[in-house]
């Protein structure tokens, strides 16, 4: 299984950010072909102290590398990517990994 993770730094206006994410961006992501599961986690605490380095984490799961690559080439993903760059481009870090 392949996972794409979006890590978001804290925005200035948390309410507006969450509203756009939930009302606009997540519906776009849910249309990406091959996406098996999408989880969003609000990061509230750093167990070792201080503020967490990130505000929000989105985890998107794909069956395998082939499904992930096809999803990334899809028009639906291109649309979601454009939206992401408009509302969170400077705040997001994307990483890809293999789930063991």
From TrEMBL:
<feature type="domain" description="EthD">
    <location>
        <begin position="10"/>
        <end position="88"/>
    </location>
</feature>
<dbReference type="InterPro" id="IPR009799">
    <property type="entry name" value="EthD_dom"/>
</dbReference>
<dbReference type="InterPro" id="IPR011008">
    <property type="entry name" value="Dimeric_a/b-barrel"/>
</dbReference>
<protein>
    <submittedName>
        <fullName>Uncharacterized protein (TIGR02118 family)</fullName>
    </submittedName>
</protein>
<dbReference type="Pfam" id="PF07110">
    <property type="entry name" value="EthD"/>
</dbReference>
<dbReference type="GO" id="GO:0016491">
    <property type="term" value="F:oxidoreductase activity"/>
</dbReference>
């Amino acid at each position: 299984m392949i996972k794409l993770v979006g890590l978001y730094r804290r925005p200035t206006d948390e309410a507006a950010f969450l509203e756009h994410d939930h009302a606009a961006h997540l519906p776009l992501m849910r249309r990406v072909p091959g996406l098996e599961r999408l989880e969003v986690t609000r990061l509230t605490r750093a167990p070792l102290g201080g503020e967490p380095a990130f505000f929000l984490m989105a985890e998107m799961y794909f069956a395998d590398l082939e499904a992930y690559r096809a999803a990334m080439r899809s028009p639906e993903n291109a649309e979601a990517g454009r939206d992401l760059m408009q509302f969170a481009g400077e705040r997001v870090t994307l990483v890809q990994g293999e789930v063991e």
